[in-house]
Each structure stands twice: as C-alpha cells, then as structure tokens.
Design brief:
Keywords: Signal. The chain folds into 2 domains: about 120 residues, no CATH class; about 100 residues, no CATH class. Helices cover about 15% and strands about 40% of the residues. The protein has 3 helices and 17 strands. Strand 12 and strand 13 form a beta hairpin. The longest helix is centred in the N-terminal third of the chain and has 15 residues.
Length: about 260
C-alpha cells in the first residue's frame, strides 16, 4: 500500500503537466494512448445496438472457431468502403449504483477483421484476436478517432457529480493514465474535453475521547479528463492522483477556470 502511494505521489507532478489549460490541446502521446484504448473498448447504449449488428456465421471450412489470419463469413450489412471492423461479444451490463437504471452494455473486444469480398455471406480476414472468434460474435465499425479539438477544455459546464463504476482493463486500483468508466454521459451534460475532480470519501474513525465513530472530511484526490461520451456513460482518463483511487470513488465537475 505504501509503495503504491509513493508511486502515485512521484507520478503526480509529471501527470499534472499533461493537464490541459483552457484552450490547450493534449500532447500527442496522450492522444495516442486514448486512440489505442478506444480501439479495444466500446460501449453500446442498448442491447439492440449490439444484437442488430452484423455477426459471424462461421470460420473457413465451416469451423466454429476462427483465429488470426483466417477467413470468417458473416451475415448483415457490411460496407466495403469502410473495410475495418471490430469483433465484439456482449460483456457486462452497466447499471447506475444509485438508481439501478441500465446505463449501457460493454462490448468485449475479441479482435479485428478486414472486409475481403461480398456474397451471400460477407467474407472477412481476421487480423487481430484476443481470443478465438466464435459464431454469433458481432462486427462493429471502427469508432471515429478522438479529434484534438474535441478535447479542449470547455469554457463552462453545468455542475455534475457521479461515480467511477468500472476500470475496463480489469484491475482494482486506478493509476495515472488509466481509463475509467463513469455513470454519467451526454444526457447529463458531460462533454468530451471536460475535467472532473475525483473526491475520495473520508474514512470513519473512532473518537477515543468522546467515543463513537466520526467521519473525516471528503478530499479531492485526482483529476479526470472525459474523452468519449455516450448517452448515459463516459470514458475518462486519470491525469493526476494524490492517493490510490478505486471503483465507486465519487467525481464532480472541476472548476474550468483553473
């Protein structure tokens, strides 16, 4: 625990240099990190968005599993003018921790494929895999890249607060430059480029003189940059942290004038 905190404290001054002042862009390396993350992570607003997408029918020779370099056959509308597709499988369903409303569905990254030829079934060649491709896996177009102009800090924004509800890479502690999933999105007023302050809840400690428990004050503990918004969810990058952060830590709109 002490070692993790020491690493975060040493990282913090360097991460603060990445924090864009109003009207300034992120540096190129941070933009590239965001683009790589978006290649492998996707949120769908509803189950229908995934269930209506084109899907894999079989691998070559009718096999039920496909691997890197193999051809696969798919059914559905695929556009040869946009030949690169991500292969995804339905993942976890995100719900709001306060209201239990369904907010969206995580599409688990299986790999990528490239359009080869159309026919009764469309043929694609698998270019990258994280696991074997199966019949029923869905094909989604590559997402639009993050435009640097969209990541400029807005001049003003409504006050918004919510929770970090997931760390897509599957760890429990959030480190500097990790991406996280937030339970707020476009409908709540979040915009790409917005900065958020992570608030760490104060611990409950025992008052040794008066007796009983007393809660310590909540304290700012980090800064997030929103880089992709969906209807009810968003992705954000942790730019700085003064202590270890975790899922269910609270965030709120930062002072955009800072």
């Amino acid at each position: 625990m002490r070692k993790s905190l020491l690493v975060l404290l040493l990282w913090a001054p360097f991460a603060m240099a990445l924090l864009p002042a109003p009207g300034q862009r992120l540096d190129q390396s941070t933009q590239q990190a965001i683009q790589r993350f978006l290649l492998h992570n996707r949120i769908l607003d509803t189950a229908l968005d995934l269930d209506s997408a084109p899907y894999i029918v079989a691998a070559e020779s009718g096999r039920v599993l496909g691997a890197h370099g193999e051809r696969v056959h798919a059914r559905g509308v695929l556009d040869a003018s946009q030949p690169d597709y991500g292969i995804f499988r339905r993942g976890k369903v995100y719900t709001d921790p306060d209201t239990q409303e369904v907010l969206g569905i995580n599409a688990d990254d299986i790999g990528t494929a490239r359009f080869v030829m159309a026919g009764d079934l469309t043929t694609l060649v698998v270019q990258r895999v994280t696991q074997e491709v199966r019949p029923g896996d869905r094909l989604l177009r590559s997402p639009a890249p993050v435009e640097p102009m969209n990541l400029q800090t807005p001049d003003s924004a409504p006050f918004i607060q919510g929770h970090i509800i997931d760390i897509p890479k599957g760890v429990t502690q959030i480190g500097v430059l990790d991406a996280v999933t937030l339970n707020k999105g476009r409908r709540d007023g979040l915009v790409e480029g917005q900065r958020l302050t992570v608030i760490k809840a104060g611990a409950s400690v025992r008052d040794t003189l008066a007796g009983g428990l007393v809660k310590l004050p909540d304290e700012p503990a980090g800064t997030l940059l929103v880089f992709r918004t969906y209807e009810k969810l968003s992705y954000a990058l942790l730019l700085s942290a003064s202590r270890p952060l975790a899922v269910m830590d609270r965030f709120e709109t930062a002072d955009q004038a800072q």
